[in-house]
Design a protein that fits this description.
alpha/beta; 10 strands
């Protein structure tokens, strides 16, 4: 396996008295796409949000165990969560653009991080739009409202905005579930391209999508990690019958 980027050991998470994640242990390699699959409510998105501590924003959440990025525990008391979220970007199911122009959406993060030089900001915008395969479609529309874009374009703009602060890890929570097949295809192509530089973790309900875009797949059920292996093995020869039953549609 390639170098490990994210290492999780005995992770448990509670919302109040309800345990949402149970003894999760897995290693996610860098510059690969890792997909989380499983029925609704099985803990996939909750686990994704552990990786950038988004669950901290929910009252009554308790986390135990270890989650390391490059060997450093995210839940150490001296971790700067703002800096962590810069390193670990997130793309949500519905595009969560700011009510600003296309240009202002992308430069928002760099500006907060102290970059004020217009030439530098212009360079970031061009670079990230190229990475998000969006530049040709919006290069003459930079000062238009971001909401004027189509759904698929908005989602790619969210990805460009995430890339603008130069993360190392990109978390994607069902990034194409609200999109048409053509836009979905563009997002999937983009994921393949981005993994040359970034570690990507994607939650998806679409098993064909997981099979197409990911190198590794983790199957979750009722807060437990049932099986984690190479995607080809999970989809053609899983080791655990429960995984096979889910993938073949016998339950879930």
């Amino acid at each position: 396996m390639k170098n490990i980027k994210i290492s999780v050991k005995d992770l448990n998470l509670f919302y109040g008295d309800k345990q949402a994640l149970k003894n999760i242990t897995l290693d996610i390699p860098e510059k690969r796409v890792t997909a989380f699959i499983g029925p609704s409510g099985c803990g996939k998105s909750t686990f994704l949000r552990v990786i950038n501590r988004m669950n901290d924003l929910i009252d009554g959440v308790k986390v135990s165990g270890e989650i390391l990025i490059d060997g450093i525990n995210l839940y150490d008391s001296n971790i700067d969560v703002v800096n962590l979220r810069k390193r670990v970007g997130m793309v949500f199911q519905k595009s969560n653009l700011f009510p600003k122009t296309i240009y202002e959406n992308i430069v928002y993060g760099p500006k907060i991080n102290g970059i004020k030089d217009k030439k530098v900001l212009d360079g970031i915008v061009e670079k990230t739009l190229i990475q998000a395969a969006l530049l040709d479609e919006v290069k003459d529309r930079m000062n238009e409202h971001a909401y004027s874009l189509s759904g698929g374009q908005q989602q790619r703009l969210c990805i460009a905005r995430t890339l603008a602060v130069e993360p190392e890890i990109i978390l994607m929570d069902e990034p194409a579930s609200a999109l048409d097949p053509i836009s979905t295809g563009k997002i999937e192509e983009l994921i393949q391209d981005l993994k040359k530089k970034y570690t990507i973790v994607i939650v998806t309900h679409n098993m064909q999508q997981a099979a197409r875009v990911s190198d590794l797949t983790a199957f979750f059920y009722l807060g437990e990690l049932i099986e984690f292996d190479g995607t080809a093995k999970i989809f053609t020869n899983p080791s655990i019958k429960q995984t096979e039953d889910y993938i073949t549609g016998r339950f879930g």
